[in-house]
Amino acid sequence: MKGRGGLVLATVTLVAAALASTAGAGSSTVARIQAIKCSSTMKLAVLTPYTGPAAFLGQDQGSWANLAVKNIGPKLGLKFKIVAADSTLDPAVAATAAQKVIADSQVVGVIGPATSGAAAGTSQAFFDAKLGAISGSATNAALTKSVGGKPKTATAAFFRVVADDSVQGTRDAQYMITKLGAKKVAVFDAQEPYSQGLADTAEAVLKAKGVAVQRFSVTNTTTDYSAIVNRIDKDTDVAFTPFQVASNAQAVAVTLRESGRKAIVFGTDGTIDPAFKFPGSYVSNFGPDLTLIPSKKALVDQWKKANPGKTFSAFGPPAYGAAQVLMQATKKACVDKKGTITRQDVLRRIKTVKIKDWILGGSFAWSKKTNDPLNGSFWLFQIQSDGTAKQLGKIG
Amino acid sequence: MGSHFDDELTSPVEGAREAAAAEGPASPAVGRDEWVARHGERRLRRGGPLGTLEERLRRVPWWAWLTLFVVLFALLPVGVTDAYWRRVAFDTVLFMMLALGLNVVVGWGGLLDLGYLMFYGFGAFTYANLRSDQFDLHLPTLLVIAIAVVGGALLGILVGLPSRRLSGDYLAIVTLFAYQIFISILIGGDDIFGVDLTGGVNGILKVDPLSFFGHSIPVSKEGGEFNVAYLYVALVFFTLLFVALRLVDRSRTGRAWRSLREDSLAAQLMGMPVPWLKLMAFSFGAAVAALTGTLLVSLNGSVFPGNFDLTLLITIYAMMILGGLGSQAGAVLGAILITVLLELLREPSNSRYIFYAVLVLGLVAVLRVSVRLAVVAGGVILLGVLIRVVVDLVDSSWTGSAPDGSGWLGDLLARWVVEPDSVAPWLKSTAYISLIALALLLTTLRGWTRLAVLVPVLYLATFVWENVLAVQPEVTRYILLGALLVVVMIVRPNGLLGEKRVEIV
Amino acid sequence: MIGPALLLGLVPVAAVDFDRLFSTLVDSATLGSIYALIALGYTMVYGILKLLNFAHGDVFMIGAYIGLGILHLFGGAADPSISIWLVLAIMVIAAMVGCAVVGVTIERFAYRPLRTAPRIAPLISALGVSFFLQYSVQLLFTGQHRTYDTFLMDGGRLFESVIAWGPLDVSLLRLIVIVSTAGLMLILWWIVSRTRMGKAMRATAVDRDAAAMMGIDVDRIIVFTFVLGSALAGAGGVLFAMRSDVYPQMGFIVGLAGFVAAVIGGIGSVPGAMLGGYLLGLIESVTQTYITTQWSNLVIFSVLIVFMLVRPQGLLGRPDIRKV
């Protein structure tokens, strides 16, 4: 280093250190065992992509979590605040963001991580910190269950309020066989955990029942589906597109029709979105149409008022539910521990929470064996001729 | 800036001796040419105490600076007890190492390597495969790191082979192709002829932490907090790396690389084995990246294809070039600046301080402390008050209070600038775009028109900041980073610590 | 002996699925057209400034958003207030104009001050601009993926077959994309090779200083180049979004593809960029239809590496002869 460089570097390090210590001069007591006063403003961290190609997740889950905190906090007599932690799609960035959450002693729980990769990567840290992480969208079955003889990939500190891929994939496949009479199915995946989990399960079930399956693993640099659609046999009945990004499913549907193929497109939660509106298509969603339930419609209106000009995907409302569970668990802890709690108190009470008026309809309870919902339900929608999704009923 | 023709010119012989003495015993005997070459430098040197100080500092050997820097860095955890910032410090060290490695390829070798991340990934996955339950191998840490580094170097040679036939931008694109192939293998790697090599999109989990001489270093302390021991390990590797690269830079290879970068054709004519040198540069950079990869995965305990997205490469390039291409200190500086900046800007209150500090400093720098500055400042404040009064009369819901967590500055500003409870999307877009347009226009104006336009632009800037930018700090920090890159490049095209290069036509 | 052998040779020919083959060719033409449009912007700017304009993909993205805005202005795809065809035309023109403005602004403020700087400086400036554009759009319009709802336009007319001769089956939308891009490229070719401005552009690309000495206003030519390149990118953005979706990061992937196309065609060569675009489209389509979807990236990029090794200067690039 020349003199100039070295001096500059040393100065910068000092300044950066000074800034960092003012910005993050946390107490030396480990946040895990630090006592949190229930009378203070407690925080719920939302760990989800806020930037990058999946930024819509951050937008949806963040805004629904905010709504939950606004509605439910006062009812419980507690003050909550939402803290955003951008995990992007890079699990290493998620790990650093998780540290930020852990180091903030006022955080009592985490809503997320949104992606299965981040969930697997951060779970040990959250377990050590005794911080409960409830996800509304990480549906990889291996997170809470042992798959293929391998141990589960997440810890006991990871929960999810929506049923996992193995359930959804199975039910969707069965529906295709029984109700849609499919003999030939084209199964897609987008080379990421969400779609791959669903696709693997569905493919296995379909093959077991003697359905001919063509599997297409689409790279994330694919923008035009024509070439892939060209490979699909002309007499294929159903195209299963469990994409997170609805517009890709729409592109598949449109391209299928353009090439003269008659296959019906069957999407999953990610495709409940204004961008997917191909008439005749089906979508299975882990939540019902909220606007059909009067009590929930008011919530949707409230959300729309707080977020003018925006729409939300299916991954938004479960974040509301996750926040609700966390807040209820915190309330229980506050009552039991008489106003001063620790994170572990909250974590221990998460599985005792039962919610009667669940955001996704019906009631909510935890499964006894795993950190999944007791009766994860899925609803079936069909896209009408005007592009809207009409709920047909429960699936499976 | 006066020229100091007469003060410090000494006779050539004395000057040569002086120069030779300054360089130390290892300096070449042909000191005369050195002295002549340094003549221009001496003319441009600052006079007075500052100049003397600079000159003294320049004489301090590089390893002294390195030691100081590393010691300061190592003392960081004393002042910074927040586990998050310690983890950020670790990330920064990794970035520093990556930037140093890329500096070898791009800065010293002059090769645009767009596939650099594949070596990073290679190192990480090698470690993950050899120290986890994936193949039930738990080889010793140092052995695995050595394998990763050597493997990375070999892979670097392989990928660098096309450099014999391709030049410049064509080589760049081929390295990009290689990277895409690598990612493709990572993603589909859970079933390569039945073997699960990479875990596919779900990656490899439960990777062993670092373990030296039988002592395993846990990745987190009780409570899930980052174990600062990893920061120290990373610092050790960084120091070793820095010293190693420095020694290489001073060696024949380093000098050969410098000549290669300046003019590869001339270098070839002088008998340099140019193709071999290019491969060496590639290989070195790859080895460094592989080493860094092992550190990454050992802390995270897991590795996924998503860890090596192309946006990461862009960040490393930005760091390296911001700091100054070809300068090791520059690469380190760039890494620190960008990482710290991005993390600081996550908090709305932090970013608010930074934004307004930059605004005020910029204003002072352009206008100097003068009547003009007072006029502009006064004008802006008046304008704000005026607008607020008018808007309040029209619709008082527009002059709400600041959202929580804005800090004292945010509260103060909320009293002055108009902050509607919910801003209509059209207003957001219009205000934002007009701010950019006006700000750009401002750079072309001069004189009193500039002052006149400056006042409303400053108000608009505050309005846009409070209502549009500060609301989404995660996104805003990248906008600010982008603007920073452009501005720094225009002001200092060689980067912050880069040396001015004379390109011979 | 020869007879039956010949007959045997005809079997694979008969087994060729001509439907699929022709579909593939049409696919590659559609895809390749877009790549070519973007590649042209890269290659023209590189030819004159030796700059890889990383922000070009984001200009393309802005074009798509401008188109979206216009579409909404006229009431949306399903029920526009005026004829949808008119709306589409306005969308393309508005995108071209808007992107030209953006491109010129970028050149004026982010690249011009760096004309004499080392080559890597404008590269990083371009990176900064790219970040700025991408995240600004996300800030204002969120990261949500939006669509043009193309299949709702005129009752889905755009996806109906317009040419159906045996195995050749082209939908109206594809025809529009292929023909309009070809038309735009033809106009560009005419400008570059037949007009004075074009001649000045070519001269500046060969030797900037000599061109200046010959009385060419280099600044104006550079602005003109950016206008052309960005307008093409804008048109490409709208045409692309007709078949795909609109979101802030879309410029990254497609821009990368355009960049690859420009380089394999020989960076700096205008016809090279056009050919490179179609070539890339062909490789991509053939790979994904005939060979593999999961490993398509592996195959495509391996092919491209081999191609670059065999022809290091790209399709129509000039071999690098450096004078000492």
Unreliable stretches of chain B (pLDDT < 50, length at least 5) are 1-7
Q: Count of helical segments of chain C?
A: 12
CATH architecture of chain C: Orthogonal Bundle
How far apart are the termini of chain B? 29 Å
Approximate helicity band of chain C: over 70%
How do you describe this structure in short?
With 505 residues, chain B is mostly helical. Chain B has helices at residues 12-23, 31-37, 39-44, 48-59, 62-79, 83-108, 117-130, 141-160, 168-188, 229-250, 252-262, 264-269, 274-300, 310-323, 328-344, 348-367, 371-394, 407-416, 425-442, 447-469, 473-491; strands at residues 131-132, 137-138, 211-212, 215-216. Chain C has 324 residues and is mainly α.
Explain what you see:
The complex is a heterotrimer of chains A (396), B (505) and C (324). Helix content of chain A is 39%, strand content 18%. By secondary structure, chain A is an alpha/beta fold. Chain A folds into 2 domains: 36-163 and 293-365, Rossmann fold, CATH 3.40.50; 165-285 and 379-395, Response regulator (Rossmann fold, 3-Layer(aba) Sandwich). Chain A has a 7-stranded mixed beta sheet with strand order 8-7-9-10-11-13-14, sandwiched between helices. A 5-stranded parallel beta sheet of chain A has the order 3-2-4-5-6. In chain A, strands 1-12 form a two-stranded antiparallel ribbon. Mean pLDDT of chain A is 88; it is low at 24-29. With 505 residues, chain B is mainly alpha-helical. Chain B has helices spanning 12-23, 31-37, 39-44, 48-59, 62-79, 83-108, 117-130, 141-160, 168-188, 229-250, 252-262, 264-269, 274-300, 310-323, 328-344, 348-367, 371-394, 407-416, 425-442, 447-469, 473-491; strands spanning 131-132, 137-138, 211-212, 215-216. In chain B, strand 3 and strand 4 (215-216) form a beta hairpin. In chain B, helix 17 (371-394) packs across helix 20 (447-469). In chain C, a hairpin with a 2-residue loop joins strand 1 (161-165) and strand 2 (168-171). Chains A and C meet through helix 2, helix 7 and helix 8 of A and helix 2, helix 10 and helix 11 of C.
